[in-house]
Amino acid sequence: MSAAVSTAAKLPVSLAANPRLSSWVQFSPDGRVMVSPGKVEIGQGIVTALAQIAADELDVAIARVDMVRASTSASPNEGVTSGSLSVQQSGRAIRQACAEIRRIFLAAASERLGVGIDQFDIDDGTISGPGNIRTSYWELAGVVSLDREATPGAEPKSPAKRLLAGKSIERLDIPDKVFAQPRFIHDQLLQHMLHGRVLRSEMAGAGLVRLPDEAARAVPGVIAVVRDGNFAGVISQTESGAEAALKALRRAAVWSPGHELPDENATAEWLKTLPSEATLIDRRTASKPAEIRRSLRRQYTRPYIAHASIAPSCAMAQWNGERVHVWTHSQGVYLLRADLALVLRLPI
User: Fold this and answer.
1) Which domains, and CATH codes, for the chain?
2) Among 207-216, 239-248, 301-310, 325-334, where is mean pLDDT lowest?
3) Are strands 25-27 and 33-35 parallel, antiparallel or unpaired?
4) What is the distance, to the nearest Å, from the Cα of residue 128 to the centroid of all Cα atoms in its chain?
5) Which phi and psi (to 5°) does residue 225 adopt?
6) 65-67 and 33-35: which strand pairing?
7) Which of 66, 70, 29 has the alpha carbon at shortest distance from 51?
8) Taking Cα atoms as reference points, which of 89, 87, 95, 123 lies closest to residue 25?
9) DSSP helix/strand/coil, 32
């Protein structure tokens, strides 16, 4: 085999690592296509982009495609969602998997209807041929098993034949956000779940001197007011009760004076006033010191920046006696699962 043919026959990296086709795509009895990438949607729009790729390769309307959120119990392990690599990695895997799945169903239709594969067309999942013969992905799903490993060789569509990929369409994730549908972990309700709020000082370094809590405890639904030094908070049966109790605590709390944060326009000068430790990393002496003809001195600063969350992070965990179910806005759910298994001393 030539080097060119060998290279062309390789599976995309994510598909090679997770070759079972059913872990990527499944067909539901109600005429839906469920696509399960191992990358997570964190606002960058990959759910829409990957749905476009799947719809193109399978010849189905994008409205039929249900994107299944990443889950360690079912999704392919694609590592971490980072580096703007989701379309490159997950997209290539989904395109290749869907191309092979399309070919598998065409072969099944050919066997059932007695017509050559090349004589079929697929329109929104309906497979039709000469003489008005037809079937569909969903009619064949009962006899076609996708519990098989992907194989090299299936040819995805050429860019010229793609109707959706590369085109601007309405984002699939935006409507629920605009119309405040429950989409986030913050919206999840579990049985017997309690709600908490933490009291924080408005000044850095302030100490909690006194915390009269009678008004907070009187709020309906409040179960406890807790304090550990400067840490204080409330626990309530309802979220509104927790909010109301927190307001009562905030009005009653007495804090010692804190300190002002430095002027953000003079951060560099402020940093220079702080205690520091000097460490010599290396010292070198030129073999023949050259004549110094010109000395340049420059100083560069930049604003204080942080690679930080722009919204409250949220996670939940539930133990049922046998398994731990964790909901989290993590970019690497499989890596997190491995770490949690170590911490909890449980089988992964």
Assistant:
1) 3-175 (3.30.365.10), 185-255 (3.90.1170.50), 315-344 (no CATH)
2) 301-310
3) antiparallel
4) 38
5) -115, 125
6) parallel
7) 66
8) 95
9) coil
- Would you state the pLDDT for residue 8? 46
The backbone region for 125, taken as left when phi is positive above 0, alpha when psi lies in -120 to 50, beta otherwise, is left
H/E segment holding residue 196: strand 195-199
Q: Which two tokens stand for residue 23?
A: 């872990």
Measured CA to CA, the distance from residue 123 to residue 247 in angstroms comes to 58
Cα(69)–Cα(214) distance, integer angstroms: 44
Amino acid identity at 262:
P
The residue with tokens 């079972």 is: 20
Where does the pLDDT of residue 7 fall: very low under 50, low under 70, confident under 90, or very high at 90 and above?
A: very low
Give the pLDDT confidence of 45-70 residue by residue, as tens digits: 999 999 999 999 999 999 999 999 99
Which of residues 26 and 267 earns the better pLDDT score? 26
Alpha carbon dihedral 340, 345, 347, 348, in 10-degree steps, equals 20
